[in-house]
Structures are given as structure tokens and as C-alpha cells.
Amino acid sequence: MKNRIATLSAFAAAFLAPAVALAAPAASGPNDGIFAVCMCFGVAIAAVGGGLGQGRAASAALDGICRNPGSADKVFTPLLLSLAFIESLVIFTLVVALIVSGKMA
Q1: Which residue stretches of the chain are H helix?
Q2: Does residue 25 lie within any of the structural domains?
């Protein structure tokens, strides 16, 4: 039950923070700080998700290698490839956050 609540709250935060961040520029006044905070939360959520994904991938790879040491050569390359893909998604989130904030064009 706790796992479902944590998943639901992370899911809600992942979609509510960007919604608030995208609504902030439409408003007038000193909302630039709110926009920056929301973009930081979005990147932080992506980094936490990427870190959890990388941890699970490495854990599964090491578990497989420990159970069958002969498979280390076959597991190593897909592990590095999957870690690179996970990290690229986090970097992609950072780039999108910078583009939306107007720091990059």
C-alpha cells in the first residue's frame, strides 16, 4: 500500500510541477521565481528517477553476474548501454527545462 501511495505521489508531482511551471510565464508579476523553482523540481524528479533506474539496472546486472559468472561478458555491454540511455533521459530533461525557461534558444 505504501508503495502505491509513493508511486502516486511521485506521478502527481512529476505532472503538477511542470504544469505550474508552464502556467507561471503567462501570469504577470514576480512569478519568475516560482517558474525557476518548478523547473528545478522537474529536473530533480528526473534525476531521482534516473538514479533509481540506474541503481535497479546495476543491481540486476550484478545479481545476474553473481549467479552466473560466465555471463559477465554478455551482461556488461547491455548494462553500459542501458545506463547511457537512462542518463541521456535525465540530460534531455535538463535541456528541455533550459529551453522552456528561455536560457537556451
Answers
A1: 2-23, 32-67, 72-101
A2: no
pTM attached to this predicted model: 0.62
Predicted confidence at residue 13, as pLDDT, reads 62
Helix axes 72-101, 32-67, angle to 10 degrees: 180
User: Which CA distances in Å does 51 have to 74, 85, 86, 104?
Assistant: 23, 12, 8, 25
Q: Residue holding cell 533521459?
A: 89
Does any domain span residue 59? yes
The DSSP letter of residue 31 is -
Q: What are the cell numbers at 82?
A: 542501458
Cell of 102: 528561455
